[in-house]
Design goal:
The protein has about 450 residues and is of the alpha/beta class. The protein is built from 15 helices and 17 strands. It is elongated.
Length: about 450
């Protein structure tokens, strides 16, 4: 078999960088047998290159701490940016394009927050930007939306796309523990960072749904317009009430296309336990897509980790390499559609989105309290679907009262809850969770 060489330079040898290197080196013969390509990792760069075992870098020609040795090397065809962050990472990508090199990255935060310039530069230069590893770890999803569903109008996306948050909610459900205890366990096992803010507050998930919805809805979704709410305020009592309702609580990324605008939001969501996404537990991810022709598809797997994400990065490298040796021309637009990379649709304000709601009030156990709360809800046009009261009660105790509502605007709920929370017989702040699907 005639082997065609494509030279790669990897900048950043952290978790994903080492995973990518492992995939490309250990499965080199597999890649050659499947593609006829010799993906040659010519150069690697890391600020701590001298601390990395030479055995792990065996076969790599250039090992450097200077990224310019890769960016300015005329023999490098593909630059792989895996340092993360914003300013330096963007500089690497833009410099690679300016030097005529294709780019692969897994940098979801950069692409979500400041990707527009990068996407445009990729198009202007006629060079590929591969970013499969930025969403869903090893789950092939970006390529699916860009290419496999190219004949479809994607109307809805629902995603469990942060393993840390999903692990925490799964453990709270299965073991009856509170958030803080499970978070410490997740940190001990390496499933959560020392600073878990991006994961548990939904920011990481928001980065990913901003990218997916931009591709699916053929528009740039400004990250700052994505509604984000995390899971750190979820209590065991809410997990228990969800069970009584035959539901589960998941941190969902939700994107929906309407005639004139789009929804893009991230928040804890109550979903029926019969729904397939409710079965996604532990650190696993899943993305559920609704399109006009193929209808519903679900994509499930490991959403993070060295080797799963490294596999996705390697897949991008291979796809670009195939095009380099076959025709040398860019075959698929960076975001999968032909238009200026600008916002095409407004993002609907979260308060204007219709939804059913789970409301948990903490109120004194006194006669008439439930009816008074229901009266305030009715004042704001909120219809109650069902109510749950604890069985064992004692007069003057503070008890949780749970109402499930019919669909209403978020603004109505906010106004009603603000009034209810000011009532003398209501204690603590009302817990408000959105509901997707019918029970």
């Amino acid at each position: 078999m005639h082997r065609k060489n494509v030279n790669v330079g990897i900048i950043g040898l952290g978790t994903v960088g080492m995973g990518t290197l492992n995939v490309l080196l250990e499965n080199r013969e597999t890649i050659i047998n499947k593609t006829g390509l010799n993906i040659n990792v010519k150069s690697v760069c890391d600020l701590k290159i001298n601390n990395i075992s030479s055995e792990l870098l065996k076969g790599v020609q250039v090992k450097t701490a200077d990224m310019n040795e890769i960016l300015n090397d005329s023999e490098i065809d593909i630059v792989v940016e895996l340092i993360g962050g914003y300013t330096v990472a963007k500089s690497i990508i833009m410099s690679a394009f300016d030097n005529g090199k294709h780019v692969v990255t897994a940098n979801k935060a950069l692409l979500a927050v400041d990707g527009k310039d990068i996407f445009k530069k990729s198009e202007e230069k006629g060079l590929y930007l591969g970013f499969e590893g930025s969403v869903g770890g090893g789950i092939p999803i970006i390529r699916v939306i860009k290419e496999d569903l190219a004949a479809n109008n994607v109307n809805e996306i629902y995603g469990i796309i942060n393993g840390t948050a999903n692990y925490i909610l799964s453990k709270m459900e299965s073991e009856g523990k509170e958030f803080d205890e499970v978070l410490k366990e997740a940190q001990r096992l390496g499933y959560a960072e020392a600073d878990p803010t991006f994961d548990v507050e939904g920011i990481d998930t928001a980065h990913k749904i901003a990218i997916l919805s931009s591709i699916a809805f053929q528009t740039i979704v400004p990250f700052e317009e994505v509604f984000v709410e995390g899971v750190s305020n979820i209590k065991q009592v809410d997990i228990d009430f969800a069970k009584k309702l035959n539901c589960k609580i998941k941190l969902l990324a939700i994107a929906k296309k309407h005639a004139d605008d789009i929804e893009v939001r991230v928040h804890p969501t109550i979903i029926p336990e019969r729904y397939i996404l409710s079965k996604v537990n532990d650190v696993f991810n899943a993305i559920y897509i609704v399109s006009d022709k193929v209808d519903r598809t679900i994509h499930y797997g490991r959403g993070a980790g060295s080797l799963p994400t490294g596999s996705a990065v390697a897949g991008d490298i291979i796809n670009i390499a195939r095009d380099i040796v076959s025709c040398g021309k860019k075959r698929v637009p960076t975001l999968g559609f032909q238009t200026d990379y600008e916002p095409q649709y407004p993002v609907r304000d979260i308060n204007e989105i219709n939804s059913s709601f789970y409301l948990r009030f903490s109120a004194l156990d006194k006669p008439g309290v439930l009816s008074k709360i229901a009266g305030v809800l009715g004042k704001y046009g909120i219809s109650i679907k069902s109510a749950i009261q604890p069985g064992d009660r004692a007069p003057n105790d503070v008890v949780p009262l749970v109402f499930m509502t019919h669909e209403t605007k978020g603004r109505n709920v906010n106004d009603a809850v603000a009034e209810i929370d000011s009532l003398e017989y209501v204690r603590d702040k009302t817990v408000v969770l959105r509901v997707e699907g019918s029970r």
